[in-house]
Amino acid sequence: MSKQTIPTATHMLMPTYNRFPLTLVKGKGSWVWDDEGGKYLDYTSGIATCNLGHTPDSVKDQLEIQLDKIWHCSNLYHIPAQEQLAKKLVENSFGDQVFFCNSGAEANEAAIKLARRYAQEVKGNDGYEVVTFSQSFHGRTLAALAATGQEKIQQGFAPLAKGFRYLPYNDKQALEQLVTDKTCAVLLELVQGEGGVVPADEDWVKQLAELCKQNDILLMIDEIQTGIGRTGTLFAYQQYGIEPDVISLAKGLGSGIPIGAVIANQKAAQAFTPGSHGSTFGGNPFSATAGLATVTHIIENGLIARAAELSTYLEEKLQRLKQQFSPIKEIRGRGMLQGIVVDDNAIDYVTKAREQHQLLVLVAGPNVIRILPPLTTNKTEIDQFISVMERVFAS
Ligand SMILES: Cc1ncc(COP(=O)(O)O)c(C=O)c1O
């Protein structure tokens, strides 16, 4: 392994991250290079973001063209790429209208605001409460943080934004507590990513969706990690036989260029009117171009079907790994979002993979190794990944 040079100004960054001792300077496809020329297989995809692999040509070409045109102009003017991206998202989902922002947390903020305004301005009641679930993760801004059902992430930020209530995930009985006269929406991950790669139970989701429908409570799916082909369909909700009112997106939407979005049906979207919400950068010409090129590439190249097929191959190999090594307790996930549940510290395996075998994977909580290959990976790379994991577990 190459010797790493740690940049000298790290101490000038606020210590919000425990960074690995690795400086990545280049990426192509499933591979990244450090500042000493060391090459790594990247099965993190920048935390479920580089779904087309690093620096995909189809996106790069469009961005290069856009760089010579205009980068930013604000949302006071029409932005063709933003409107084309909205059209692509609407045509390929349940939705009717889209709001663009810059990140996942902002997308959830917009969704939460939309839900409250829908209850208060459209339905005419004082519903403000959003139901979320234990171990969920919805982002770090104040409302997204309050929506997040994990105390450790909320610690030190009191008072939290009011109006959130948490129910246990995948618990049918707890659904009895879902509806109150204050409930305006449910915000739900269909695979809890940060919370340990935990897929939602299909019957539970259907029951929950039905309750929302009966009570005119907005069903809002947080697709920030699961969206843009990550779980085997363009959006994870498409595998659950449900129709949400709202979904939030970010991560994979721009291939690494920051962009977030909220897609809503007409019923919910009408709650926003001029001046009720906004974002200076949201969907600007540059980020919208990245989003449009990304979604176009995924759809036009049949990447979702290909990735779904590859993920079956990956899952089979992971199941075999489980049979070989007793510390592995479970393999769980959907599509290209997989977790290896171990009975000891996941970070030790992640560190060994990186330091000894130049493989990048992540953790999701203390005992889950999280695997997020780009949708563009192939069987050879999957075999390489498995062979490294075999060596990691054998040592
Ligand atoms: C499900 C989910 N929601 C929201 C977020 C927050 O996104 P961002 O970090 O872009 O604000 C994340 C990020 O990991 C996520 O996985």
UniProtKB/TrEMBL annotation:
Gene3D superfamilies on file: Aspartate Aminotransferase, domain 1 (3.90.1150.10), Type I PLP-dependent aspartate aminotransferase-like (Major domain) (3.40.640.10)
Pfam families: Aminotran_3
Catalytic reaction equation(s): N(2)-acetyl-L-ornithine + 2-oxoglutarate = N-acetyl-L-glutamate 5-semialdehyde + L-glutamate
EC number: 2.6.1.11
InterPro entries registered for this protein in UniProt: AcOrn/SuccOrn_fam, Aminotrans_3, Aminotrans_3_PPA_site, Class-III_PLP-dep_AT, PyrdxlP-dep_Trfase, PyrdxlP-dep_Trfase_major, PyrdxlP-dep_Trfase_small
Keyword Secreted among UniProt keywords: no
Modified residues (N6-(pyridoxal phosphate)lysine): K251
Pathway assigned to this chain's UniProt record: Amino-acid biosynthesis; L-arginine biosynthesis; N(2)-acetyl-L-ornithine from L-glutamate: step 4/4
Cofactor dependence: pyridoxal 5'-phosphate
Keyword tags: Amino-acid biosynthesis, Aminotransferase, Arginine biosynthesis, Cytoplasm, Pyridoxal phosphate, Transferase
Positions bound to pyridoxal 5'-phosphate: G104, A105, F137, D222, E223, I224, Q225, T280
One GO CC term, this protein: cytoplasm
Amino-acid biosynthesis listed as a keyword: yes
Cofactor note: Binds 1 pyridoxal phosphate per subunit.
GO molecular function: identical protein binding; N2-acetyl-L-ornithine:2-oxoglutarate 5-aminotransferase activity; pyridoxal phosphate binding
Matches recorded under SUPFAM superfamilies: PLP-dependent transferases
Compartments, record wording: Cytoplasm
Residues involved in N(2)-acetyl-L-ornithine binding: R140, S279
GO biological process, one term: L-arginine biosynthetic process
Family per similarity comment: Belongs to the class-III pyridoxal-phosphate-dependent aminotransferase family. ArgD subfamily.
Additional free-text comment from the UniProt record: May also have succinyldiaminopimelate aminotransferase activity, thus carrying out the corresponding step in lysine biosynthesis.
HAMAP family: ArgD_aminotrans_3
SUBUNIT field: Homodimer.
Protein name: Acetylornithine aminotransferase
Top-level taxonomy: Bacteria, Bacillati, Bacillota, Bacilli, Bacillales
GN (gene name): argD
